[in-house]
Amino acid sequence: MAYSFPEEVLEYVFAFLSSDKDRNAVSLVCKSWYEIERWCRRRIFIGNCYAVSPQIVIRRFPEVRAVKIKGKPHFADFNLVPEGWGAYLYPWISAMARSYPWLEEIKLKRMVVTDESLELISKSFKNFKVLVLSSCEGFTTDGLASIAANCRNLRELDLRESEVEDLSGHWLSHFPDNFTSLVSLNMSCLGSEVSFSALERLVSRCPNLKTLRLNRAVPVEKLPSLLRRAPQLVEFGTGAYSAEIQTDIFSNLVEAFSGCKHLKSLSGFWDVVPAYLPAMYNVCSRITSLNLSYATVQSPDLVELISQCPNLKCLWVLDYIEDAGLKALSSYCKDLQELRVFPSDPYGAEPNVSLTEQGLVTVSAGCPKLQSVLYFCRQMSNAALIAIARNRPNFIRFRLCIIEPQAPDYLTLEPLDTGFGAIVENCKELRRLSLSGLLTDRVFEYIGTHAKKLEMLSIAFAGDSDLGLHHVLSGCESLRKLEIRDCPFGHKALLANAAKLETMRSLWMSSCSVSYGACKLLGQKMPRLNVEVIDERGSPNSRPETCPVEKLYVYRTVAGPRVDKPDFVWTMDEDAALRLS
Amino acid sequence: MDKIPDKLSSSSEKNEVLNLEETELRLGLPGSEFSDKKAGNGFSLFGKDLKDETNNGFSQNPLKNIFSGAKRGFSDAIDGSNKWGLCINGGSEVDLGKNDVLFSPRGGGNVGVKNTNILQSCQPTTPQPVEGKKIEHGSTTPASKAQVVGWPPIRSFRKNTLATNLSRNNDVTGNSGPGCLYVKVSMDGAPYLRKVDLKTYCSYADLSSALEKMFSCFTIGQYASHGLRGKEELSECHLMDLLDRSEYVLTYEDKDGDWMLVGDVPWEMFTDSCKRLRIMKGSEASGLAPRVIEKCKGQN
Fold it and tell me: CA A41, A47, A53, A56: dihedral to nearest 10 degrees?
């Protein structure tokens, strides 16, 4: 069937497709659509940097302007992935420097980024605009200096939660005097003090600056000066929010904040002195996002602040808020969509605050739009979970961390299977779930039966047998990422559901009971998966085949086995048995 | 498809496994369980095994073997180790298998007793970084839970910020503060560095033992290249050879950015001020703490 629909028209239509899923679907219609689409795709998302190689990406999509790449597995956040594991950015940059001279955006998560990479970025892409480094590491402030000095059109520099070797604050002064394009700057993870006058001048000359997240080293008395120069700010992160109480500092703050009519998001608040919180009250009515998760402030002060924020949609807070504070939250903030409660003293033997399951129950009852929760607490009951599930069937993210591993229902001493079962049964749109507490294979049966939209599941210290894992792998149709630690899962479910792994991005299993022999078998059986054994005890060949591996990371890939593995990672494939022996 | 045998390795299989124990490198307190715990000769990675030597008053110094045997005097930097809250984890590695550390920390009751048997039979020595080994010693360690690596799941940035918050807030309870403190450890010549949580150790001996396990894979490579295999015994001249080559010194960067020798200050003070660790070649360490070197020379 020949039809002479001009390519240009199709390209024009495709330009309206922003979602990767839609674009992928379009590219499967026919060969000519595949060709047209690949030439006009501008944004690429690579969920696992080892699933594909830079060369393959560049070959298929020659005109990319924005890349987003994720590296290490999520459990790297909790130090479960040894240093030196991988996820190096450099090979990507060096390939893209040659092929994507017009690249504008690089967004990375959990990648190892060196100063060399940053320098190459700054010199290779003339129109470079956006750099977001989320939970990355490997670079120093010298690398930031290159970016500042050379990226004339930079709009965003966001270093959220990256580990930067902080040599000095001097990097900020490398932004040239005629540089005015900054829209977003997040340096909250840096330790060193930057030159304040350089910062002031930078803020003054960038009229489009909407996001400014300072680091801890900027004292509270300096904030008014910045806020006055940027009344158009929408997102602001303070530095250390403490000083000796002085009335003029306070009144300056009040005045400066009231000048910011567009502020929607506040964060920072390290070392906060409660007496300075009221300085923000006159912006609170517009605030939709509040990150108080570093603010060591007691519940009454938190409640006073929160009660001024009726439009709050997102709250991150420490457990100092306590059940009483959460009750207040549920009555003042009816628009709340996301809540994260972090533990102030996770390693203490005894609870230091009065935060229990009740707080979560109350919020789930009082906030009809609540859809995303991360909650650390020390006790939970099936009754509470069932109540939460019934109150809030619209959860899409539910992450519960009961601090003591394998803690049972504190009322009945039973496992929490029925509680989490209620969550997955009622919350039909649930996409992400993290389990904790005492759990048997039953909970996995519930999950496999009901959690049909679940995309990411995190399991720790749970289950009895391979049957549990089998329920998940065979039942969760939308599963993309599965991460498991310290569970008694062996090889049976894994091997029986090997094909499932090709439909997922990745599987992580550490401190489980998957034998080396099983890993080898999986690698041989599934050539389109990389089955990687991570074991710091030395080569798995030095132990019996039945010996469980320390850690296992399995992911689908079109790039073949990694070539940059450290010596504690082995790829199981057909050649592995021969090479290792 | 071949059936994977369900039966786990028996002890006879274990013996056939390449027995690295005899060439195992470890740091040891002279006369401590570290030296005693394994059959065969424990060669100290960082210094001579002084198990059989007379004490000369240095016996309680946990750091002795971090420095090379020839420069034993460095250890003199520590006088009277009792005040440093020495915590000797007797036979800690042997206990690791029993400790259930992977499934439930102490205090979790007996609910976590799963699969330890599997792990025990396959892991004669588990050189994992210390997990959940906090041993309470009444006066010295705070009453915090035994720590499992990566649990509760809190990111390092947040943990380290919490740590600073707690110490700044001058805890009324008198706890030594935060529950964990990750620092990077690099070793000269090693291709990548490691991270350790200083709070999981309660003494210098504890720390040095863990570091030795972590980095032994790099030095084992060296030994292999010198023609040592399996159970071959080292002659004395080999030993001296190796010791000369493996003169490593443990140093750390403190809050002020200065590099110091590990062991100069009380353990708690060290954990409060240590930002990162570096295992450096002894020859490079001579610039550090010259005062200590003078002291040693005086003693010898």
Answer: -30
